Amino acid sequence: MIEDxxxxxxxxxxxxxxxxxxxxEMIQRGLELAIQIEQKHGITPIPIKSECKEYSVRxxxxxxxxxxxxxxxxxxxEADKAMTNLPIYLALSIDSTGIHISCATKNLNSxxxxxxxxxxxxxxxxxxxxxxxxxxxxxxxxxxLTHGMDETLSTPGGxxxxxxxxxxxxxxxxMAPAKEKGYRGRATKDAxxxxxxxxxxxxxxxxxxxxxxxxxVDQGLIANDSPLKLSLVVIDQNGKDGLIASRxxxxxxxxxxELNANQKIYVHVDELYRNIPANISQEKKWAQWEYIFRGKxxxxxxxIEGVSLHPNDGKLFFIINLHTDNDGAVTKTKQIALSVEDAxxxxxxxxxxxxxxxxxxxxxxxxxxxxxxxxxxxxRFDKELSSTDFRDLVIIKAxxxxxxxx
Length: 406
Hints:
The protein has 406 residues and is α+β, with helices and mostly antiparallel strands. Helices cover 16% and strands 36% of the residues. The protein contains six helices and 19 strands. The strands form three sheets. The chain has a six-stranded antiparallel barrel with strand order 1-3-4-5-8-9. The radius of gyration is 27 Å and the shape is elongated.
């Protein structure tokens, strides 16, 4: 939100409609105070509705990389190389699909605005000036607290007394948990005892691994070459930090993310295969693929064309053909390996290609079934599938009840 910058500081306007006009900051502070009073007295809080709006944002970016831990798993850590040391100015909005980001076009009176379009191209996965969306399922959300240096520290004998007051203006404190990317949850005094509402600016921290191209909404998720971290502060027309607006932005993203988490979103088969690393030996790329897709919900309809039985390990895979539309013209066929978790016994039926699972469900090759499940792994990493002709298939885990004949 761009903060109001009235030319007249008078509270009562000069016009004759006798309405009271208050600065937006005073209104917001008054609402927050009213809510705190109501909560103390056990009164139901008044909900504050925030309409969809566009924020002018100053962004600092950083490249993240996958670091292999002793247990063989991977964690994200900030790389030594920086994308750019200068800020990137963005226009940002939020809706039910995610965070929409575009290059700032407004005439912001901010230092370093020159060359902003070139820096934005580095940020945009598609190396263009087009806008893009970070879906809620593709980023982690944190926040840090920042505030300017106390001028008393530059007084004689102070910690930074040699810097002088002008140099102090370029310095700030940043507070975040030790060895963490930032705080989580709501940015309030009750939730975070370090938070000072009159002093601290809430800096939104987003670490994202995939985006959607706004110019091709049907393309699906596209993984970044490397995960990126964005540190965002809302600014006014003069480039100054907006304390209230920055806090509002963080909470707007948090609330939209929480709402989105309650809605089941299904990943598409094309997204799974499109983002498989071109070089299959790149462990870090596979770690990123798993980070994006593993555990995501999957729903499709397809024809069962094969079966891979591994009775010694209690595993059963159905090989399913899925027919996907390619721009409404050409139909492509992709296969997945459906792993049935609760199929303990398998019996052959009298009819060729028929199987009876756990004496309860018949499965027939060549028939079409609708099913739901969760993305699990790629076949090359499963010791059973890796030794078969189906090693290059994505594994979807499902239960018997998830498979319905059409």
